[in-house]
């Protein structure tokens, strides 16, 4: 049985959709434990059910130090796990690797409530901290694998759309888990249901991926010959490692990779901005900033607005990605010009919005600036982020792992410093962080626009090419 293309859609889009939901499932695992803790601390039950739940009795005694440690556990291991994932994605069967990771985390979510309920006083905190560390390890490993698989499925006409999948998937997972929490929190022992819900969603994805997923379009059993020929004619320099067991594993060209100028451009660009994107422009930071210094109450951030805003983010992101691909596919504008224009809009827009956010004094002003911060962030997804898939599709997972693992270290250092010292944030410190981040965005965009070559890297080429016609494209022309 094969599936034929219809209205420009085909099996490749099914694969991209599965990978989007994998990003969402991993994000659910990432946020689930902390949300469960929050529910356990805030749920209101009658006295009998309250005292029957030993874990809840233990959790309500946890203070800021314990919560900070739980949050930090993920950050301590993620950069190292991400680098390891970049190596493994070129050595293992990526379909089986993703299946094993999600299945293991799903089973872990099912068993954890039983473990912590029985021995909550002695191992409750240790168990929850261990789960955060384990999730950090497997999330770090899974992301390069997902990028490596995307590199085998994306065509030159879908690069922008594929590069936004990580953002769309993470936001989707956030909407699902927070939306579910709103209803789960009304039930008795709702904190346990967070884990059961996460486990169920993970197992559903495993079934779908086992049935329909494939690590490469040439090994997929239900791709039509027409779509396969289309992908061969619209991909570039794809090798054949991993398709046949006798061929062996893809070699690492360490010297060539680390002497490529574009790699260091990506490291500088992401290094200057990654810490702010993942540490400053996140809901906890913005909530603390406005709740502490502008007297806005948490009730103003209700679940309906949260879900509505995030759904709008998903729609806007998809539209921008589709439009960027449409412009490139028509061939009237150079692909490199589209990438760098979108990146300039994203980085300059975020920088200006962060400066204005530092001056926000009213609720309406704050909401407008928060919207523009998120809106301009989307443009970076179709700017510098496309390079992970465009620069070297045979090593897309490894390139992503190198850049992400190294640029995540400053964020991990910030989390570690905050955990150890419990720094008290003042309005001046908040504003200084926003202004510094804005300045770094200006520098990062200048480096990317002037120094990134937008060419296929030399180390991407292989003697084990696909047998049919394949494109070798210089994206600067």
UniProtKB/TrEMBL annotation:
Membrane-related topology note: Multi-pass membrane protein
Record localization: Membrane
Protein name in the entry: High affinity inorganic phosphate:sodium symporter activity
InterPro entries: MFS_Na/Anion_cotransporter (IPR050382), MFS_trans_sf (IPR036259)
Residues spanning the membrane: 16-40, 98-116, 123-141, 161-184, 191-212, 306-324, 371-391, 398-420, 432-452
Main location: membrane
Keyword terms of this UniProt record: Membrane, Transmembrane, Transmembrane helix
Species assigned in the record: Nesidiocoris tenuis
